[in-house]
Write a structure and sequence with these properties.
This protein is an all-alpha fold. It has one domain. Helices cover 74% and strands 0% of the residues. It contains 13 helices and no strands. Helix 2 runs parallel beside helix 6 and helix 3 packs antiparallel against helix 12. The protein starts with a helix and ends in a 7-residue tail after the last helix.
Length: 282
């Protein structure tokens, strides 16, 4: 009988929390380190906005709107680093040591088992700070955050956040799957950090002639990381439906499609790679 995946995940999460609490000082230091990075990131853009009213002329990303965007990026980073990053990094080690054999023998989907065994709770402060930054920025924009955060907007924001997390997970598990063919793929993890740098900024800054348009097209339609942060941020910074242009509505729909095809493509790559795996005993 197939186990309940929710119960298995909750067991993983509880065990990870127990392990983290066994080394509380280390856990606290990791939380402080994670929060410090976010605060320094905020400080950098605070300095930038002392010299310019908006990032990208005519883009609409003024200070408060951009900090809503930045808070959204922090939330997505927190989700990825809490639930996926450590597990993807561990995959190549499972192959090297032969411990992937034990995962294959379990009566549960292998991709699920290697994707969620560890929850890195120390990365959650980034997400909490992101929520606080978004609320503060929305309050500065509207004077009353409750006027903006109606149930529909919250639902849309959460939905597109999930779509973004699915896209980022799909890219990560695809890169991790190549460990089966290459043994170690540290260079591909470096590639992961290179491409994720692009989704930390509004896509309008790339929509210029020359190399900018090339980057925009590549990271919107080939590796769709730009929609990961841009669409959910727009839901709050430029409320859904309020003066949205046709291309923004199109990108919102495309984000959903990108999440679906990214997940399906990553599943195909994972299965294809797993078919090439030779166990440690073979």
């Amino acid at each position: 009988m197939q186990p309940s995946y929710i119960k298995v995940f909750l067991t993983f999460a509880r065990n990870s929390l127990v392990r983290d609490m066994s080394f509380r000082l280390n856990f606290i230091l990791q939380c402080l380190s994670s929060a410090s990075w976010a605060i320094m990131n905020w400080g950098l853009f605070k300095i930038i906005y002392n010299f310019t009213p908006e990032i990208g002329r005519g883009t609409g990303w003024q200070e408060n709107e951009f900090f809503i965007f930045l808070g959204t990026v922090w939330i997505i980073n927190s989700l990825i680093q809490t639930f996926f990053m450590a597990n993807a990094q561990e995959f190549s080690e499972l192959i090297r040591t032969g411990n992937l054999d034990f995962a294959l023998l379990k009566p549960i989907d292998t991709q699920f088992l290697i994707s969620f065994p560890r929850v890195n709770w120390a990365q959650l402060p980034n997400g909490i700070l992101g929520v606080l930054l978004i609320i503060t920025s929305l309050n500065n924009l509207s004077g009353d955050v409750t006027k903006v955060l109606n149930p529909f907007v919250l639902l849309a924001f959460g939905f597109f956040l999930c779509c973004g997390a699915v896209i980022m997970y799909s890219v990560m598990i695809t890169l991790a799957s190549t460990s089966i063919w290459f043994g170690r793929n540290q260079s591909l993890y470096n590639f992961w950090f290179y491409i994720t740098n692009f989704y930390r900024y509004p896509m309008e800054i790339y929509q210029r002639n020359g190399i900018g348009m090339g980057l925009w097209g590549t990271f919107t339609f080939v590796v769709p990381v730009l929609v990961v942060s841009n669409i959910p941020a727009r839901v709050l910074a430029q409320p859904l439906g309020a003066d949205w242009k046709a291309w923004e509505w199109g990108l919102a729909g495309y984000t959903v499609l990108a999440a679906v095809w990214s997940l399906l493509a990553s599943r195909w790559v994972f299965k294809k790679a797993l078919a090439s795996y030779r166990s440690a005993s073979s």
